[in-house]
Structures are given as structure tokens and as C-alpha cells.
Amino acid sequence: MKNKGLTMTIIFQAESANYGESLGNVASLKKISRNNGDQYTYISRQALRYNLIEQLGEKEAPVVAEGSGDKKVIQFQADASIQDFLELDFFGYLKTEKGTGGKKRSAKVRLSNAISLETYKGDTDFLTNKGLADRLKENMNIAQAEIHRSYYKYTVTMDLDQIGLDEVDGIELPAAEKARRVSALLDTISFLYRDIRGRREDLKPLFVIGGVYDRKNPIFENVVDLKEQVIPVAKIKGALYDEFEHKTLCGVVEEEFKNDIEIKNELHATNVPEFFKELKKSVVEYYEGD
User: Fold this and answer.
1) Is beta strand 142-146 parallel, antiparallel or unpaired with respect to 26-27?
2) Which Pfam family would be a valid example here (predicted)?
């Protein structure tokens, strides 16, 4: 099967969608800093993976706890394979086995962290349980939580020729099943959401660009940006080598960004549903043509 990669970079908007370890009674958002000191919140790739598997609508792979005490390791069951479980097919596995090197399959679908495109300014929310404490005439508990509403960006990259193929277990699935699996994942990404602290955050793409290519590079990861609600189109076009240009699809939600007309004209953007429809068509054509 010819080497092919699918990549797409997505912008969505969400609020306070991934917390790390608390500091005292302050719930802390996951954050990274750049050299100039600016802080950006992020949703980890592990959190995105969790939500993708949760919403994929397929059977979750069984797991077992091996070992004992502090050395106990939770891992996928030894007989779980890509034949039955899409999460193993997409995200790989590591199955340890005493006295051997175990079995390992690397991820064929890779996610970046979803990093905010606007800086974190230190906002916090003041929380109490006053409603419950008043019922017992007790003192309320007080806590704080960091909060941040922002646009976020992440990239998905897939090794299409490796989906449905596991050389460790000697399994190769039919082309139609490979296409079905990738299409199911694209459908999940197009309607992705995240439940956190009583909220359901919509991670559905507001802007997306990508396609099926002969290269497996995350082409748009470092060129999709947002400045004052404008997506710099010239920066994206600067990464469009001739071999990418006619294979690249783009989708945008109308009136979400100040330069949506420029995005449509220069990147030939359609709406987001049309983007996913055309991308799924490219996936099917790839598997049917092999």
C-alpha cells in the first residue's frame, strides 16, 4: 500500500477545559510559557485522545492490572487486538510480559496538545458550597479555580497506510474496514466535545485545513495562527508547496473570524461540514484505489 498521510490543523473555542494538579485550594489549569513570559493554557493530547475514544462509539479495549503493590501496571489485555478494537488500531499499545520484551505497536494517529491562541491573564473563579452549607447552617468551603476562555489549536496526523495493519500480531484488515474506521474517527473529530466540571465544552472545528498527502508531515501545525481574531492567510500559503496545493481542503465557520472572506478567497475554504465530506471522500478513494 502506498505511503499516505492525513493531516489537519483545527481551531476551536473552549473554556477552562483541562486542569492539572491543584495548588492548595486553587485548581490550576494546565499551562505552558514562551520565552517572553506569556502563558498559554492547553488541553493535553491524552485528554483529547480520551474524548475521542469515549465518543467514537466503538468497543473499548479490555484492560488488566498486572503485578502487585506499587509495581502494579494497568495495560491492555494480552489477547486484545486491532481486529476488534479501534483504539489499539489508532493509538497503538504496549503489552509487557515477564521474561520477554513484550509487544509494542506505535500510534498511527497522533495528536498534538490543543494550545490556546490567546494568552492566560490570571483570571480565577471564586467557588463555595454555600447552597449546601446553608441547609445545615454550617460554614461554607471556599475554593478558587483558574479560568480561561480562548481559541485553541491542535493537529491530527494519521499514517493511512498503517491503519488496519499490525505486523506484530500478523493482522491486516480489508480496505473497506480501514476506510470505515478512518471515516468514523473524522466524524468524531467533527463533533468532538469535552465534559468537565459540570460543563460540556464544544471542541467542534471553527476553522480546519488539511488533506491526504504523499508526506506524513503535520504541514499546518506551525503556520496556523490567530491574531486579534484574524487567521494570517499569507503565513499558511507560505507553507503550501506545489505538491500540497491542489490536495489541500479548508473549512471555516462564516462570521467567526474577521477575515473569513479572505480565507474563502485565498484558501478556497468551504464550510466545515463540506470539508469533512470531501476529506472522507479522499480517504475512501485512497483505500479503494490500492
Assistant:
1) parallel
2) DevR
**Beta-carbon neighbour count of residue 25 at 10 Å?**
11
Helices assigned H by DSSP within 191-271: 233-237, 242-245, 260-267
What letter would DSSP give residue 60? P
* Lowest mean pLDDT segment, chosen from 123-137, 168-182, 226-240: 123-137
3-state secondary structure of 140: coil
**Hey, which bits of 24-139 come out as E strands?**
26-27, 31-33, 39-43, 63-66, 73-76, 93-95, 103-105, 109-111, 114-116, 124-128
Beta strands (DSSP E) in 46-148 are 63-66, 73-76, 93-95, 103-105, 109-111, 114-116, 124-128, 142-146
The pTM for the full model equals 0.94
Neighbours of 141 (CB within 10 A): 12
Confidence class for position 99, pLDDT limits 50, 70, 90: confident
